[in-house]
Design goal:
The structure is a single chain. The mean pLDDT is 84. 70% of the residues lie in helices and 0% in strands. The protein is mainly alpha-helical. It has six helices and no strands. Helix 2 packs antiparallel against helix 3. The chain has one domain.
Length: 160
């Protein structure tokens, strides 16, 4: 079932959510490299720094999900979109778990000597890619070929 075009109100909401995405991206970047704005006070990656980039990632994913929800424009939910939503959430949970692995006791380093290692970086990157895949799956699909082929035929029949 094709959806109607977005209204001006929906476009305004989509822009607001995209602003939230940009804010989340900014917070994530500051969390990853706080020296960009002169806040790097420690030679190691600490609890607050991980918390900042995790919060930024949460804001980014929330804004992106809400933007796609507006773009979906009340289309019925499909299995693909449901899987996409779950992949977004799962990717975020794994990103936080990979980031806080040493603090949670599932990492390879004990608490006095915390080290954000290469396995945590790989886990964080794969988790973000999983969330991105979820966003792609949540995006509304195009009309099926049979529906596109039927439309010109129906238009020609109504013109006669």
């Amino acid at each position: 079932m094709p959806s109607s075009p977005l209204t001006k109100k929906q476009i305004r909401w989509a822009r607001r959510w995209m602003t939230l995405v940009l804010l989340g991206l900014f917070i994530t970047i500051i969390g990853v490299d706080p020296d960009l704005i002169g806040l790097d006070r420690s030679p190691v990656v600490g609890f607050v720094q991980i918390g900042v980039w995790s919060t930024g990632l949460a804001i980014l994913l929330l804004g992106a999900t809400l933007t796609v929800r507006v773009v979906r424009n009340s289309r019925p939910k499909s299995l693909r979109s449901e899987v996409g939503l779950r992949l977004i959430a799962t990717g975020y949970v794994f990103a936080v778990a990979a980031s806080f692995a040493d603090f949670l006791g599932i990492g390879s380093h004990a608490l006095p000597t915390i080290y954000f290692g290469p396995l945590q970086v790989i886990g964080l990157a794969l988790s973000v890619l999983t969330s991105l895949l979820g966003l792609i799956l949540y995006w509304p699909s195009q009309a099926k070929r049979s529906e596109r082929a039927a439309r010109p035929a129906a238009a020609a029949a109504s013109a006669d």
